[in-house]
Amino acid sequence: MSQRALRGNSLDAALAETHNVIGKRLERSEAIREQHAHGESWHKAGLPDAVAFVESKAEVAAIAAICNAHKVPLIAFGTGTSLEGHVTAVQGGITMDMSRMNRMIAINAEDCDAVVEPGVTRLQLNEAARHHGLMFTVDPGADASLGGMASTRASGTNAVRYGTMKENVLALEIVLSDGRIIRTGTRARKSAAGYDLTKLFVGAEGTLGVITELTLRLFGIPETVISAVCSFHTLENAINTVTQLIQFGVPIARVELLDDVQMDAVNRYSGLNYPAVPTLFFEFHGTKISAADHVSIAREVSRENSGSDFLWAEKEEERAKLWKARHTAYYAALALRPGSKGWSTDVCVPISRLAECILETKRDIIETGLLAPIVGHVGDGNFHLAHVLDPNDKALLEKTYAFNKRLVRRALDMGGTCTGEHGIGNGKIESLQAEAGASVDVMRDIKRVLDPNNIMNPGKIFLTNAGQKASAIDYAF
Amino acid sequence: MSQRALRGNSLDAALAETHNVIGKRLERSEAIREQHAHGESWHKAGLPDAVAFVESKAEVAAIAAICNAHKVPLIAFGTGTSLEGHVTAVQGGITMDMSRMNRMIAINAEDCDAVVEPGVTRLQLNEAARHHGLMFTVDPGADASLGGMASTRASGTNAVRYGTMKENVLALEIVLSDGRIIRTGTRARKSAAGYDLTKLFVGAEGTLGVITELTLRLFGIPETVISAVCSFHTLENAINTVTQLIQFGVPIARVELLDDVQMDAVNRYSGLNYPAVPTLFFEFHGTKISAADHVSIAREVSRENSGSDFLWAEKEEERAKLWKARHTAYYAALALRPGSKGWSTDVCVPISRLAECILETKRDIIETGLLAPIVGHVGDGNFHLAHVLDPNDKALLEKTYAFNKRLVRRALDMGGTCTGEHGIGNGKIESLQAEAGASVDVMRDIKRVLDPNNIMNPGKIFLTNAGQKASAIDYAF
Fold first, then answer.
1. pTM (2 decimals)?
2. What's the count of helices (H) and strands (E) in chain B, helices before strands?
């Protein structure tokens, strides 16, 4: 019996009542359901029974109350760029497309904050903020929706200086499973007023409620931005450089590590001729004087760690050129084997263990016979692998899955976490259990009390019953 | 009937069983119970029935299980420096003194983190970190325990640059109400693995569990620290200076505002001769070059806002002299009326509303006939009042209480919060209800599922039953 049938819910009644609320914006075509059945990952897609294109929090609240009454799953969907099966409708139900809730409600320049609806994307916000001399700094690569980024606790290249979504969401408006609407904070920059509900909903992957408004932190656009690239003989040297710079308190805005395989890939893909060795891509933000000072310290520390001379640039187009290798990393990796698919995964460890973790992982890649370039947000101890693979090679998929479990085990054994920024979704449920143990019971308790009918994005982060076994993995490829 | 009698619990059995666990370290003397009945505030003390001096998490877990079985309140106590009645035993029970759990478990210099027991104080941690070239930056003034600081989401002068306890607690070990022990995170610098339980327990004021271990973030001690003082004709000018510096992205490490009344007080108290006008106390951290650059920008922006010339200092003893006015602010305020007591309160608003909020508050102070100097963590929009009052003047206490309610209302109406850093305790329960509304129901739900017998520091943050009326305020003075 399917999980869906097990729910024994009243889907037809829920659909009829939802239709009464939003009319033709409740879509049931196969094509639209398929579009909303997956993110950008290897997980098997589970189709929702319908997609609701909502336009207001009142509609979200009404539909939540309907789904709750009929015990029908409700899944919020942003841009579909998540990587661990977060939006897959594993138990069917209604997927709520938030993209039409994209009003920019306010940009408060003096307070360096913005109030937006969840469908606004990060580039849209940045475009609006730019006119006030401000920027929104969280950059996970994709032009994701801000609601989705909050829900997955998104991060990215700027996190080492400006924080992740955890640090950049000041307050949320949330529709709870029964349709109640709450606000989790104010526009005050800090507060000691009660439980931090904002941080509870950030990263909850839509399992506790639906975000209908966000108050976000902005930063002043720096006077000067300097990019730099530096090659190293060994991974240890590259990572030691970063560790030392952080200890010195040099506020690096971005620092990305590409390994030898990844550098080779970008050289081929973009016609560049960097040495195919571990390479750091830096970005420094500040005043003219302070940014130059930080570059000179970084150059000195790199040199002490046998780094190459710095290639560096200050003008926007030159910086773009310099960072091109980083920005095209994923496509360059895929191009190593034409016709391949990418399977992306990440872990995060204390930075003191990063070199060791990456080196062991590289050994494992070679021994297992995989092709998986590494890119690291090295200032945070976070690194990514892009498995480049033939989607029809089932044995390879199984090997990759097993490899990823070893990767997580290795990170946990080093005091790290099973995911630095991709999240749990339904792809890393076992990994979270391995990492968090009894804490998962507390998460489950919180879920149960806030969503007693388990309608909010069910089957994600943890299994609802502690005794339940994870289902076998199906590959989307 | 007293709240305590209403619990209908088995106190004697709980005390006997606790005695079996820790023997003579369960103290019942009046003197020790009184010491543990209050923080440093105006709230009436509620004496616990006994004080348990615990020495290990196993003891904490055993005592929690005992209290839970017998429905006896359990209150964790650090150094007793909180300001809103957080540790008052309003329903009696066992207060657990955490001060003997003060092991420094690890300082991981490469990772810029420390693992400590909750009884370690912030100065103890700083002393240990200093030998590694590192510092712990959260500074609420008092040398509070780190467990207490996490529980109250403490903050202070450095928050504008380095964050509050929210940003500086990486992970916690928690004993839950039934004695289970969980860990809420790892030493990884960031994670997207499940609900952020760390942030749920930070600021929960001991109502969800007892902290038995903390992983904390450290920062490198900056190469250069420069302090500066600048006077302004008006509050608006002072505050505009700070707003502009933050928008420019100048990473000010501290920026404190003292109003005219407070400056007059410190002049008298410390024999200084600052102009008795709104004054900013700055601190800049960085490399020699970047710190000097930031000072010069701050000086320029101050001048544009009609600020005085900068008094500034770089050597440690000179910096201490310069900041003396700020450090003695509270005692200087009390000395304005010998024999007075201090009643401290705080709110936090968006920085764009800070000048307006402080000015309205000053008008209200004058109209109400109060003596209440103002000190602001102005970079965060957070400010404090120290009511200097005669503890025997009941009419004045009532007036002060009513004034504080107006202050909170004013902050909320400006999009702010009822407390930036002091917390709710039992002093601001009505304020939180006014601020958070339906969100308090969600907090109550979480409390109920994690602490079904309501033993963990009951009567704090919110009333357990939504319908319950707050009891009339009794003053400790």
1. 0.96
2. 18, 18
Band (pLDDT 50/70/90 cuts) for residue B15 is very high
Assess B66–A contact: CB distance below 8 Å, yes or no: no
CA distance B65 to chain A (A): 16
Closest CB from B112, B195, B251 relative to A446: B195
pLDDT tens, residue by residue, B234-250: 999 999 999 899 888 88
Q: Evaluate if residue B441 carries a pLDDT over 80.
A: yes
CA atoms of A36 and A49, how far apart (whole Å): 10
Check if the beta carbon of residue A197 is closer than 8 Å to that of residue B443.
Answer: yes
Contact A333, A386 (CB under 8 A): yes
User: 10 Å Cβ neighbour count for B474?
Assistant: 11
- Asked if B410 contacts B361 with a C-beta cutoff of 8 angstroms, the reply is yes
> What is the DSSP secondary-structure string of B288-308?
HHHHHHHHHHHHHHHHHTT--
Chain A residues whose beta carbon lies within 8 Å of the beta carbon of residue B193 = 417-419, 423-424, 428, 431-432, 435-436
Task: Determine contact, residues B132/B117, Cβ cutoff 8 Å.
Answer: no
Q: Which of A406, A414, A405 is nearest to A382 (CA)?
A: A414
Task: Please name the residue that has the structure tokens 């939180």.
Answer: B432
Maximum distance among all Cα pairs of chain A, rounded to whole angstroms: 69
Residues of chain A with pLDDT > 90, as a percent, come to 90
What lies within 8 Å, CB to CB, of A69 at 6+ separation is: A14
DSSP E strand stretches across A305-429: 311-313, 341-348, 374-377, 382-389
Strands, DSSP E only, in B415-466?
Answer: none
Mutation pick from A110, A162, A191, A300 vs chain B, by most beta carbons of B within 10 Å, is A191
**C-alpha span between B423 and B426 (Å, rounded):** 9
Burial B54-74 (b: 16+ CB within 10 A, else e): bbebebbbbbbbbbbbbbbbb
Residues near B384 by beta carbon (within 8 Å), at least 6 away in sequence: B344, B345, B346, B374, B375, B376, B377
Alpha helices by DSSP H, B152-277: 159-162, 165-168, 197-201, 235-247, 260-270
Mean of pLDDT values over B445-470: 88
Nearest to A450 among B113, B428, B445 (CB): B445
Instruction: Tell me what ipTM this predicted complex has.
Output: 0.96
Phi and psi at A95, nearest 5°, equal -95, 135
- Compute how many other C-beta atoms are within 10 angstroms of the C-beta atom of residue B31: 8
- Beta strands across the sheet bearing B382-389: B311-313, B224-231, B279-286, B252-258, B374-377, B382-389, B341-348
Total Cβ atoms within 10 A of residue A5: 10
Residue B412 in contact with partner chain A when CB distance is under 8 A: yes
Q: A197 to chain B: nearest residue by CA?
A: B200
